[in-house]
Amino acid sequence: MEVKFFGPRGLLLLTACILGLASGCSRGRQYPPTHSVSGVVTVDGQPVADAIVSFLSDNGQYPANGSTDASGRYELTSFTRGDGAMEGSFRVTIVKYEKEGGDKAAGSAEKPAAEEAEAEETGNEGYVPAGMVVSQHDTGPKNLLPKQYADQQETPLTAAVRAEENSIDFDLSK
After folding, report:
1. pLDDT tens-digit profile of 105-136?
2. Number of domains the chain is built from
3. Which domain CATH number covers 85?
């Protein structure tokens, strides 16, 4: 007895299903439309290098971020590098964090060489000498720009992104 799994109609149906599935996979991810946004960040007219610029929406739109180069120029990214931001109104935050190995933040101090050597010898790297107070506060990198520009609720900076190429500069004051 001969069993047929696919007749001509079955083969045609199978081919149609495979083509339908394959065509749905070729499009890639679909993102909302974005528009080019770039500009320059300055403080009192001087370019700000290595700052992070964020466009944040109050109505749930996807945020866009970028960082400044040595001349203070930024270009925003929402989904793919340099794609810009979605159309709409945004609050803008700008921060510039102290670089590792740069000037130390207020209140932090380097370990004296003798303490480092002792910690290495004894294996007590987490040891705190008597009389020394350990800060319970975040001792992360220090923001070098005024704090009002770092807070989404407090920032005076706003921007409107239109369905076109957008050039938006920010001149901050200390």
Report:
1. 333 344 455 555 554 554 444 444 444 444 55
2. 1
3. 2.60.40.1120
